Amino acid sequence: MGQGHSALQTCINGIANGRSGFAAYPSQPLYQLAWVKPYNLDIKVHPEAVVRPKDSNDVAEVIKCATQNGYKVQAKSGGHSFGNYGLGGGQDGVITIDLVNFQQFSMDNKTWQATIGAGSHLGDVTDRLHDAGGRAMAYGVCPDVGIGGHATIGGLGPMSRMWGSALDHIVEVEVVTADGKIQRASETQNSDLFWGLRGAASNLGVITEFVVRTHPEPANVVQYSYTFIFGKSADVASTYSAWQDLISDPKLDRRFGTEFILNPTGAIITGTFYGTEAEYRASGIPDRLPGKQDLVGNNDWLTAFAHDAENEALYLSGLATPFYSKSLAFRREELINTTGIADIFKWTDSQDKGTPLWFIIFDATGGAVADVPMNATAYSHRDKVLFYQSYVVGLPLSKKSKGFLEDFHNQITKWTGAFGTYAGYVDPELKDAPEQYWGSNSKELRRVKKVWDPKEVFWNPQSVKPAE
After folding, report:
1. Where are the alpha helices (DSSP H) in 17-136?
2. For residue 268, what is the enclosing H or E element?
């Protein structure tokens, strides 16, 4: 992609002006291990440089160096892209801007709006919001995921049905655009850019700072898990049907978030209810789930987050591994009927997965996320009530394991008219990826791309093309 790496290195080193730890290049020892650090080891990546700026001015100058020398740019916050897209996604010649140094945080105690650096990890954000007055916002529960990518692609978590997605909390951002300018974007300033950044920021710029609205922490959080250990996956079908009926109820209490996780030993239902145990009982939710639930307890906010993070780490830890994933988003009318559910679970039981490390997560969404109009932000899955995501891990990852997930996905699509998925579950194998990720908003997103990044400075293998 680029022209002459020595000119690029000279340019970047000039920004550093003698500072150590500013940038690294492929010829340096431990480049992959200490600087690149890919998350998905099944996708080989060789960025032309990894740069760790200290402020927005550094980011702006690095972008100028990249464009002057013919290179593309992607930002990396936590680095948990399933396709390693912050590192080029398997395409050589990309400049990675690692935002690890962007850890700033402050709280306005009048508006209760927080300013958060784009390199902050979700676990640190939780602690900082708590220490700044017992505040909270919606996002996922993997503590080492970076807010920079997470909050701009959607930012879904167990509290999203109650409060909306993470990107719905963004009031304003500082962003460096393709021309190397440091901009502010909000509903009233660069509003078209702000629209696109909330759902597709990797296509439009490098966000360095967020201003977000916050909520008081819930005083009580009820958590439970319900584990089924069956000899056959098919035995879980009726339980899944009952769970799906529950999460698709338009009147389901919005304080409730839940997942159904299929794994080699059976299945697990996890649930989080933001309220007291008495309120949880009164909601009627426990009565609609089969069997006996293991009530974890009535926890405070931090304890609840830690418990959810521990559960999530069993499936989606920060540990780099070779893995493969497929996913799909469902509207209420696209959910699989009982006949299809039984057929899919029976088929799953009969397959050779090629690895003991596989799991399939069904995750409830909707609620407050659906209150925001579809075209209010680039994020397009407002009308969805369920996501499924599947994973196989292998050392190494085999064709058989990948084939199992692809065939499982085909089994799912056979029974539904669902189309598209959450861009946070990036799938390098997707065809028509922009339409799948951004749906009806993809046309407007292309128009915004043409205005703010017509030369495609910000690029990955599935990025949006500027409108013609």
Report:
1. 56-68, 122-131
2. strand 266-273
Q: How many Å apart are CA 272 and CA 417, to the nearest integer? A: 29
Angle at 374 between CA 243 and CA 254, to 5 degrees: 35
Q: What is the pLDDT of residues 352-409, one digit of tens each?
A: 999 999 999 999 999 999 999 999 999 999 999 999 999 999 988 999 999 999 999 9
Burial of 313 (0-12, 13-18, 19+ CB in 10 A): middle
What is d(CA 113, CA 215) in angstroms, rounded to the nearest whole number?
9
175 and 78 within one domain? no
408 inside domain: yes
**Looking at the structure, do residues 263 and 408 belong to the same domain, yes or no?**
yes
Answer whether 192's CB lies under 8 Å from 198's CB.
no
Q: Do residues 375 and 440 make contact, with C-beta atoms less than 8 angstroms apart?
A: yes
Cβ(268)–Cβ(228) below 8 Å: yes
pLDDT class for 2, splitting at 50, 70, 90?
Answer: very low
Q: Are 56 and 50 in contact (CB under 8 A)?
A: no
Same domain as 412, residue 297? yes
Structural domain harbouring 156: 105-217
Which CATH number belongs to the domain containing residue 305 in this structure? 3.40.462.20
Q: What is the CA radius of gyration of the chain?
A: 22
In a domain, 468, yes or no: no
| Residue range 252-262: mean pLDDT, rounded | 95
What own/partner pairs with CB < 8 Å and gap ≥ 24 does 248-253 have? Answer: 248/332, 248/335, 248/385, 248/386, 250/332, 252/161, 252/285, 252/367, 253/283, 253/285
Q: Which residues of 225-254 are buried (b: 16+ CB within 10 A; e: fewer)?
A: bbebeeeebbbbbebbbebbebbbeeebbb
pLDDT digits (tens, 9 = 90+) for 428-455: 999 899 999 999 999 999 999 999 999 9
pLDDT at 200 over 60: yes
pLDDT at 256: 96
